Amino acid sequence: LQILVTVLNENDNPPVFPQPNITRDIPEDTEVDTAVVSREEVSASDADLDTIYYELTTTVQDTDGYFAIRGENNPEIYLQKALDYDKFDSTTLLLYARDRPVTSSDLTNTATATITIIIKQSDTRAPWFLPCTLLHNDTSVCISSPYSGRVNISEMSPDPLLLEPGPIYAVDPDYTISDRIVYSIVGGNTNEVFSVDADTGNLTMNKIVTSPDSFLLQVMATQVSNIRKYSVATVEIKVINKSNFPPYFEKGVYNGMVYVGLPQRSFVYQAGDPSTPLVVTAMDEDFPDV
């Protein structure tokens, strides 16, 4: 008598990940659709030889949608949306492996793998001249005002020029990289009157100016390790006659008076003389006829 015995495989083993904890460093400028964790690294095994179903979630707020898996049976993790280091620099993903579909009512065994993603800032932005103002809270663009200064005609200044709103200065806005900046004049330097210190950005004179024409210099700030990252700022240098004396007011104190209810742009009158408008005047000994 032959008796055929068939052993039924009971679902009594959970899926097992080869690595339950994985950490990945990912450059900020990684291209969309790039695999960041390979299928082999996150493919779970099951002693019951069941088909494994995968699901990926994130535990960090506002980082959902950046990473995804290729399919419910393919756990390869890839970048689904472009990264921005200024929005977040790390996230934690949870990869679930089930031996039954999510919608199944059968007994299901589950395993979880934790994937920590650390984003490394990339060299994505050109230097910023300071001071500058962010454009509508966009951290990728910072608008700076032109620099301005002045020199005396027919006079050589031995010191770095004083500029407004401050000295020429640029920084690498990718602050975790913070590449060194070098400066050069790339335009407007007629007769090579000016030079700029490559390291400090200080603007100095090479020779005297004999014409009253202003200079409109273009100064370039370039990153040392990536010359493709550069910015250009405008520096207006006005040429003026030398001033030996400061202006002064003819009086130390001026007293005026106004009437209640006067419309805008009404005169302020001299105190004690309601018929004479108050006039504030200053003099300068350099310009006695002005």
Automatic annotation (TrEMBL):
Its main location: membrane. SUPFAM superfamilies: Cadherin-like (SSF49313). It comes from Chloropsis cyanopogon. It is found in: Membrane. GO terms for biological process: adherens junction organization; calcium-dependent cell-cell adhesion via plasma membrane cell adhesion molecules; cell migration; cell morphogenesis; cell-cell adhesion mediated by cadherin; cell-cell junction assembly; homophilic cell adhesion via plasma membrane adhesion molecules. This is CDHR5 protein. CDD domains: Cadherin_repeat. PROSITE patterns: CADHERIN_2. Residues 18-129, 145-249 form the Cadherin domain. InterPro entries: Cadherin, Cadherin-like_dom, Cadherin-like_sf. GO terms for cellular component: adherens junction; catenin complex. Keywords: Calcium, Membrane, Repeat.
